[in-house]
Write a structure and sequence with these properties.
It contains 12 helices and 6 strands. The chain is α+β, with helices and mostly antiparallel strands.
Length: 317
């Protein structure tokens, strides 16, 4: 019986054995590509500025109710949140929600921006400590950015020293807020290459927000007290006087709470602390990506070499 010739490989099919032989033959190219990419990754890691995650946990200020209504309402609110139902907030819960929403607000940024020492730390790359002045942005990257914007017809805004608007934008980009519906504790995070300053900034941010809400509550409560006192002087019906007296007493209680030196809307559950290891860049992630990219690049160069040679020789691919 005569041996049948081996079947020819149809067009479009891959000859695995031939591909493996080609890869083995071009191992030098693969190793070279891998070495180049890994070297670039190592250089990047050595030149990078490592950032650490600083986290602060806050919780609503505990309020006591004489009949336990506040605690029962809070429990119902937690169950409703799990079920996706929104219930009216108690006073303490509403203040805490305002606290969380104010962490990125312009009013808070306006207050913090008045502290020039703080602004110098936040925008440290724009502050010339030797000249004691803000420096104009310059360099290849800045010039390239301006050139690209001009080419694309994008607006080029004139440079100005860091302001409250810049600080608010920085806060929106850098400060994270993590809420858990199962617990009232909220985690505020800030990644920075200066973890000591980041912890200080979170402390200042928290106290500034709490003080701002306290001041607003005092203004509002004093206005209510003034209005209710005036109404009390003109009301003659006993039932109305009792209702106004109860409302006036409640406003006095709120005023006393806001006038104390205790936290008003939120208190620190865990003080700011930095992570033990940097969160950005991650050496393991960078090296893994470089390893995969180097292998893919080297294999691609080896497998496409015949095609490139045909094109360079003027042949048909």
């Amino acid at each position: 019986m005569s041996m049948q010739p081996p079947e020819t490989i149809a067009a479009g099919e891959v000859d695995i054995s031939a591909t493996l032989r080609r890869l083995a033959k071009g191992w030098v190219t693969i190793v070279a590509a891998l070495a180049i990419v890994l070297t670039a990754a190592v250089i990047y890691l050595n030149l990078s500025t490592y950032e650490y995650a600083v986290a602060m946990r806050i919780a609503p200020v505990a309020t006591s109710g004489g009949d336990g209504l506040s605690s029962r309402f809070a429990s119902l609110g937690g169950l409703a949140a799990v079920a996706g139902v929104s219930l009216p907030d108690s006073g303490g819960s509403a203040s805490f929600k305002l606290y969380v929403e104010s962490l990125h607000s312009r009013d808070v940024a306006n207050i913090l921006s008045r502290d020039q020492a703080l602004m110098h730390k936040v925008f440290v790359r724009e502050w010339d400590d030797r000249a004691k002045a803000w420096r104009l942005p310059s360099g290849i990257f800045h010039d390239a950015t301006v050139a690209i914007k001009s080419l694309l017809g994008l607006p080029i805004l004139p440079w100005a020293p860091p302001s409250a608007a810049r600080l608010q934008q920085w806060m929106q980009e850098k400060i994270g807020v993590e809420q858990n519906i199962k617990t009232p504790v909220v985690t505020v995070t800030l990644s920075s290459d200066a973890p000591v300053f980041a912890a200080h900034f979170l402390d200042r941010l928290g106290s500034t927000v709490d003080e701002l809400l306290r001041e607003r509550a005092l203004v509002r409560t004093n206005e209510y007290i003034q209005y209710l006192s005036q109404r009390m002087a003109t009301i003659t019906l006993a039932e109305q006087r009792v209702a106004v007296a109860q409302a006036l007493g409640e406003q006095e209680r709120i005023k006393m709470a806001a006038s104390s030196d205790r936290p008003y809307a939120a208190e620190v559950f865990d003080h700011p602390s930095a992570s033990d290891r940097p969160v950005s860049p991650s050496p393991a992630k960078v090296l893994t990506i470089a390893l995969v990219l180097g292998l893919v690049s080297g294999i691609g160069l080896v497998l496409t070499r015949p095609l490139r040679m045909q094109r360079s020789a003027g042949g048909t691919p």
